[in-house]
Design goal:
147 residues, mainly alpha, 0% strand, flat
Amino acid sequence: MLSMFEVLAPLFAVALVIGPLWYFVSKGVNAKNCKSRLLAQISIFSGVFLIAFILQFNGLTTFAQEAETTISIVGTNAQGIGFFAAALSTGLSALGAGIAVAAAAPAAIGAISENSDNFGKAIIFVALGEGVAIYGLLISILIINNL
């Protein structure tokens, strides 16, 4: 069970990082004070990060030692290759879909700007590019279901 300190410490750290940023933005930003405010925000963030790292270092090593003693899940090489194949199918299909949408979307925008009646014809090519990512995700789900 988490102690009250473990629950409130992250919230306090977030307040320390976001609080000054909110104050800086509410007072207005101009060219004269922008550099000093940015340096102040970076130093506050670095200080909070360093304090959190120092305070949690012992707790993380204890947690890791407990996890080593309780978890003993062993998989086969075939399962590892299956998970790798699922990751590749998802990642490469998303990469291909990104390239397809990056090529089709500007052309579709240009066609729509010239003639608004071309919307239905142009959006099909953008949707086909996004469909590639969905097919890759479907294949990875089928691979993981068979493991």
